[in-house]
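> call design_seq(struct)
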């Protein structure tokens, strides 16, 4: 096994530079920029000797046939889309590390026993359709007609979006894997937290992936003239939104002192009419809550709305909560965790078990077989920001542990 770290790093630099130039680093799913990255990736998959296709759900898959095609496939990969003004490594590190592992096998003329699939899952990040993990949901069979009817602000439906990236939304059944349809899925990813860096540990073995509950909270007041409307007569939706945001922050902060800390974020807000000289008539906020406690995650937004409703009504405001998505906390498989630990030990790399506060495609893929994740440290734990940073050695460590993990899983 000889991972070519320089080639891996060159590819990371090349793909990360396929970004909206005005807001590095941005390669949003379902955009021409994303397709530009996909075209480059597909060419690299083919050049590496993989049988490459876009599946019906819009996932890019590079396959290496196994010596025993009757065995279930081993899947490795991640995602190539980013958040707006995100980092260079979230996602593409895992796709390109997986490509490197497969290409190394091809170059050494080694054929694994299991079929090997390198996957770039479509739209792992929350897309403009409001949904995340779109490609892996299809693989798990959880992408439904309601999801396909979701629209983004320009009116495109998710069904049209999947076709736009080369999928066939009427053939999603061909993407779904049976409940035990894969031998394993292993993803390399940056930690997006500070634990590994603080403890100077090169490899993290993920124990479980946080559950995420997202809902849309609409505060409705009345648009008015900002100059001619006296303060006591206003129904200012943004004032109500501010009360919700402050209360959510204080409740989540307080939870950190308990035994089941959760995190709550209002990361996206739409105000209308959104004009400097108009009293906001409506504020639409996306609330995201994450924790290891599924019930607490699901209950947070409803309790917030219930408790704040009187204060908002006193401001002549109404509040409505609508679900967007809910994913339960997902345990990584002991088999894969132990194999990652053996792989890292054989490479002389220290490891540490840790949970993932970030969501990943693995929560969906776990419905089709055992999943595991290999974390590498990132500078100051920063992610979902242009400051995201890792070193070539950290990228190489992740790929080397992935290669050895695949070898051990393949040996059975
Ligand atoms: O949002 C997340 O946790 C992941 O980075 N998509
Ligand atoms: Mn991300
Ligand atoms: Mn990611």
């Amino acid at each position: 096994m000889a991972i070519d770290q320089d080639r891996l790093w060159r590819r990371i630099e090349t793909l990360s530079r396929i970004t909206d130039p005005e807001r590095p680093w941005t390669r949003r799913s379902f955009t021409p920029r994303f397709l530009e990255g996909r075209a480059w990736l597909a060419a690299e998959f083919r050049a590496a000797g993989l049988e490459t296709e876009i599946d019906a759900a819009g996932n890019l898959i590079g396959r290496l046939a196994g010596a025993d095609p009757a065995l279930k496939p081993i899947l490795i990969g991640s995602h190539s889309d980013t958040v707006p003004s995100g980092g260079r490594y979230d996602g593409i590190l895992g796709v390109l590390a997986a490509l490197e592992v497969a290409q190394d096998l091809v170059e050494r003329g080694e054929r694994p026993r299991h079929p090997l699939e390198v996957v770039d899952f479509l739209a792992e990040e929350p897309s403009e359709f409001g949904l995340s993990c779109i490609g892996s949901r299809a693989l798990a069979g959880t992408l439904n007609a309601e999801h396909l009817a979701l629209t983004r602000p320009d009116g495109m439906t998710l069904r049209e979006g999947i076709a736009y990236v080369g999928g066939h939304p009427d053939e999603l059944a061909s993407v779904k894997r049976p409940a035990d349809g894969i031998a394993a899925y292993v993803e390399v990813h940056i930690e997006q937290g500070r634990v590994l860096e603080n403890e100077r540990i090169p490899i993290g073995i993920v124990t479980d992936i946080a559950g995420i509950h997202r809902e849309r909270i609409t505060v409705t007041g009345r648009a008015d003239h900002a100059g001619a409307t006296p303060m006591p007569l206003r129904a200012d939706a943004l004032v109500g939104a501010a009360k919700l945001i402050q209360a959510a922050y204080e409740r989540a902060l307080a939870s950190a002192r308990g035994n089941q800390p959760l995190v709550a974020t209002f990361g996206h807000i739409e105000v209308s009419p959104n004009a400097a000289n108009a009293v906001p008539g409506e504020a639409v906020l996306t609330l995201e809550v994450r924790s290891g406690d599924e019930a607490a995650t699901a209950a947070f937004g409803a309790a917030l709305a219930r408790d704040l409703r009187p204060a908002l009504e006193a401001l002549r405001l109404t509040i409505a909560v609508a679900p967007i998505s809910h994913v339960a906390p997902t345990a990584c498989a002991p088999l894969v965790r132990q194999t990652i630990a053996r792989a890292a030990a054989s490479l002389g790399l220290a490891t540490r078990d840790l949970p993932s506060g970030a969501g990943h495609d693995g929560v969906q893929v776990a419905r089709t077989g055992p999943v595991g994740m290999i974390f590498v440290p990132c500078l100051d734990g920063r992610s979902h920001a242009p400051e995201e940073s890792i070193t070539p050695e950290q990228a190489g460590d992740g790929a080397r542990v992935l290669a050895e993990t695949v070898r051990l899983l393949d040996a059975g």
